[in-house]
Structures are given as C-alpha cells and as structure tokens.
Amino acid sequence: MLNRIKRGRLILVLVICLSATAAAQNIPLFTEDFTAEEFSDRRDKVFDAIGQNAIAILQGEPSPRGYTRFRQSNEFYYLTGIEVPHAYLLLDGSSRRAALYLPHRNEGRESGEGKMLSAEDRELITKDRGFQAVYGSDLLAEHLARLARRPNTVAYTPFSPPEGYAESRDLGLRVQMDVASDAWDGGLPRHVRFRNSLAARIQDLEIKDLSPMLDQMRLIKSPAELELIRQATRLSGLALMESMRSTEPGMKEYELDAVAKYVFYRNGGQGDAYYSLIATAQNAYFPHYHKGKGTMKDGDFLLMDYAPDYGYYMSDVTRMWPVNGKFSSDQKDLYSFYLACYKSILYNIESGKTASEIAQKAVKEMEQHLAKATFSKEIYKNAATRFVDTYKAGAGRRTTLGHWVGMATHDVGRIEGPLKAGMVFTIEPQLRVPEEMIYVRLEDLVIIHENSVEIVSEFVPMDIDSIEKLMKETGMSQRYPVEKRTP
Q1: Residue (of 68, 109, 445) closest to 271 by Cα position
Q2: Is residue 232 within 8 Å of 315, Cβ to Cβ?
Q3: Owning domain of residue 173
Q4: What pLDDT, in 10s, does the model give residues 217-239?
Q5: H or E element: which one contains 431?
Q6: Is residue 455 part of a domain?
Q7: Of all residues in the chain, what percent are helix, strand and coil, respectively (each to 5)?
Q8: Quick check: 445 and 229 in contact, CB under 8 A?
Q9: Do 378 and 331 belong to one domain?
Q10: How far apart are CA 115 and CA 109, in angstroms?
Q11: Cβ-based burial of 68 (10 A; exposed 0-12, middle 13-18, buried ≥19)
C-alpha cells in the first residue's frame, strides 16, 4: 500500500511538473488564426447538411514518419483547428453535439517534446473551443455502436483522400492509384481502411460520403481565410521578386528554391504549398518539372512557380524572366503577345459573371492582339494563333478560368454559375512552341468580392521593363554566395 501511495505521489508530481513546463513554454495549444466560433459555425453547417438522423465521423492524420513536424489534414483542421495526431471528430446530428476523441496523455513524450493536447485536457478543450465533449479514442467504437442503434441512422465520412502536407485532391488520388497498381504493395489507403472498419464493426450503420458537403463549404472563404491566403500570396510574390534579383547565369535551379524558402520561413510559413517549379529553358516545357537540378545559362528563359503553406492556406503564383536580366528579341515577341492576352483575361474578370462570359469577352481582345502582333519566326505566329484558337474553343464551355485555391493549391469545390464573393482562384493560360520546346505561362491569384475583384499577386512584376529593372538590383544570392566545394 505504501508503495502504491509513493507511486501515486510521483505521478502527481510528474503531471504538475509537466503542466508547469507547458505553461513556461509559452506556446499556443490552439490556433490563433481562427476563433473557436468560426470552427463551430463550420460544424453547424455540417449539422444542417447531414440532418437529424445522421452522424459525421472524421479521422485526423496519424503521426508523421521521420523527424518531421506534424501537420493535420485539411479536412480535420477545417472543422476543428486541432493539431493532434490520431484524433477523431464525431458530430451527432440529432443533438448537434461535437465530440473529440484524442489519444491519452503520453508523459514520456511530453517530457521530451513539450505539451501535447490529449484526452485528459477535456476541461481545457470544452471550456472555450466549442466542443461539447472530449474522450479517449478508445471509447469511439462504443459510442458509435450506441448511436447506430437509433433507427435509420446514417454515418457520413469523407470518401476522398485526406489532404496532407503539400497535397491537393488530385495528387492524393494519384498516389492512391499508384499504390493500387503496385503488385507488391496494393495496400488500401488509411481512409479506405477506416471506412471499411466502420462498415465491418458497426454493421447497422449506413455509410455515405461527406466529401461533397465539405468541398462546397470550402469553396466560399471567410474573411479570416482570405487574410491567410493574402499572406501566403504576399510571401509567394516576395520570394519570386527576390529570386528575380538573385538570378544570374551559372546558377542551379535549386538555388532559387533556397532563396524562396528563406522568405517563406522567415515570415511564418509552415512549409511548401507544393514543390517548387523552377525550370530553365526546355525544362519549363514540362509544366510540373520539379527536379531543380538544371543549370541556368545565358540566354535562357526561366519559369518559377512557388508558394508557401501559411497557416494551412495556400497560394499559387508564377512568373517568367530572362536568366541574364535582359529579354532577347525572340523572347520579347512571344512574351509581349502572351502578356497582352493574359491581361485580357485577368482584367476582364468580374464578380457575378460566369467563367464562360469572361472568357468570351477576353477572346475578342486576344484576337485583336493577334491581328496586331509581329513575330520574328513563322512558328511563333503559328503558336500564337493556336493559343488564341484553343482558348476560343473552350470559352463557351468553361466552368472555371483556372483552378480554385484555398487549403489546397488545387482546391476543392464545383460551380456552374456566376462567380461569387469568397471564391479564390488562379488563371494560368499556357502558350507552347513545340518546335523549339518553348513554354510561356504566368499565374495570378484572384479573390472575388461582392462588387469587385482583388488581384492579390498584382504587385509582382510581369511587364518587361519592370522585370528588367528589378533584376538589376542585388539579390540574396549575390550577398550570400555559394560555398566552394572542397575537391
């Protein structure tokens, strides 16, 4: 008995010490980017969508592999703001009750890594975060079984792959199919195993897809979301501008990746929105080339497409510039024509208009630019003509002008009608000259407001004179040259 008392006192002292250490760490346990009320409002929309005879269950991300920081999946973070591995969320449509299921406290890990939210923090979490209950994840199966006994209960869970670090839905599906095609792997993805476990363990439960509901919710961004997207775009633009200053012949593509990462992390970015697309000369002909091993040569044209993950929100901005800081006559021919057409699209975007209406209006201006343009080579004229004809052919059936941006770079959501306030997207028309493997593309981020359009990335130079002027300035790469390798 005495030994039990001693052990109990030791555990109590350890818990008190850990609590004091956590307080002394001065680290936020909950996100400071959103209020608890905003997460509650999002969960209320889920309650409205699933109805009274349904529940919704979401599985958070597992512990990361290797020495990497944990990042919650977009879907789970969107409804909770909770950044804890192996967490679950249960939403009961009948009582409109939100319950979190978290792992129990791991004192040993906390002593090495610092305070982590756990099931033992139920009072802290329920006090002001909008959750009605917090349990250990070991109770989830029991609680689901009880709820399933209610007549006609339907369970909603996301069928689409969860979006993790630097991941969009399209990439998640590609990875899923790559694994399925591997005869020596072929394992089911974690989110599919979870759905199958729900069906196998709680057989009275009808299971439906929650993904379409969440996708439509995410299509319209709140003011707080827009502010994070603006900051991600600001950092993307600053990184591109610093890269313009730093570029010079003889550099490796990866050196600009390093320049951009400094800008991102120095200003609070938590990682990449996607791998950097830094492509010199013919490498740019492959739109998602990302090896970063090419050497920039005098006379090359360089494409850079890169943005950070800032508080779980992304951006997507692209610019092109000459490696030597001066546009050649051929580069000017193609780029000037492309830029004129690009601006015809960008500056005809209107709130309340459909993508098709905007594209058709832009095409009329693009045809005028084509009629006036002069080119040094016939293949350039042919490429310009194809560019306009292709855009014209798609103008009447467009549903978007580019792709949505938000928690994912290629964000979710569908729209058939006019652009609405809170929508965020990029445009990125592509001009190709296959005979010389030339590829030209710009990309800007656009926010739609009730009666206006905000081009967030417009501050990043795109005109020839502005780019050449900026490239004359000293860049970070010149101030901090590459270390010489020892033979």
Answers
A1: 68
A2: yes
A3: 30-218
A4: 999 999 999 999 999 999 999 99
A5: strand 430-433
A6: yes
A7: 45, 15, 40
A8: yes
A9: yes
A10: 9
A11: exposed
